[in-house]
Structures are given as structure tokens and as C-alpha cells.
Automatic annotation (TrEMBL):
InterPro entries tied to this protein: HD/PDEase_dom, HD_domain, HDIG_dom, OP_Dioxygenase, Phosphonate_degrad-assoc
Signal peptide start-end: none
Domain HD residues, every copy: 33-107
Cited CDD domains: HDc
Protein name stated in the entry: Phosphonate degradation operons associated HDIG domain protein
Amino acid sequence: MNPELLIDKIFTLYELHGHDDYIGEPVSQLEHMAQAAQLAEREGFDEEVILAAFFHDIGHLCASSSAAQMDGYGVVSHEKIGADFLRAHGFSERVARLVEGHVQAKRYLTYKYPDYYNRLSEASQQTLRFQGGRMSPDEAEQFEVSPLFGVSLRMRHWDEEAKEEHLPVPDLKRYKKMAQRHLEQQGFVFSDTVL
């Protein structure tokens, strides 16, 4: 796909669906994902992590209309749908794995710290049962040795924190430029007129 069209395609999802309610939470999809990216940036993470935070719920936006639903709480396997969408559109494996990992981190934290479940929002508690529930000891052990383990836990923290009402949404051109730089690093060539 033409790289300019690729950026437009991805960000059109945010323009079309970003103002939809973030399922069961007091913010929109766009507000939630932008806040997560801002939290990653404030903590000094690199652009791949910031993009992963911005795109972590893109699976809710890009899923087909026939995708299985979580009883009104969004799309089943949205983390995998989003990660596969990003892989197919030229994003790095690290970005894709962090998008996948934010749900695994929730499953891990509810296993490792049983009281963590009680701190989840009602929507997050409801979706956990569609996401495999608490990890088993074997799953947790495998997750802990992942090179992205620590960052995935941060992603989960940002996901939980990124629900503040009435915060201004930053200009999306910032994330478009970040995505452009990332895709250029992956080998895409952009014209000077893309943004």
C-alpha cells in the first residue's frame, strides 16, 4: 500500500470511531488512547512504546462488523486483532507485541496480585472473563520471562489510568508524524507531502 494512504487509513479509523464511547468508561476511544500515549511519553519511553500506547485498543476500531463482541464491552480478542492489523500495515513486531501484551498484563496482574481485580473498573472486570481470566501459574511464568514484560505492565497501568474526563486531546498530527517516522524506520518511503 502507498505509505501516504496507509497513514490516512489508520488515522481515519480514529476520525470515524475515535469519538465513540470507550466501552463502559467515561471517556471516548480517542481520549483513552491519547491519554495512554501521553502517559508513556511523560515517563520518558521511546516512540515505539508511545505508539503502542496510542494504538493499544485499535482492535476495537479496525475489527469487522462481524467480530465477536464482549456483551457490549467491545470486541473479543481486540488486542490480537489490533496487533495483527499493525503488523499487516508495516509496524514493528515490538509495537504489535506491546499491543497484544496489554491484555496479557491484566491477566497476569489479576493472577499475581488477587486484589488487583478489585481495583479494576467494572468494564475491565467484565472483559477479563472474555480475555481468558486470570493467568495460570505456567502462563504467568512464561509471561515473566518475556523481554517486554516490564513495559507490558506499564502499558496496563496506562490503560487503567487513561480514563480522565475533560482532558484535551492532543493534535493527532503529532502521532501521525511519529507513525511516519516509525514506518520509515521499517523501510517505508514517504513523499515530502504526506503530512
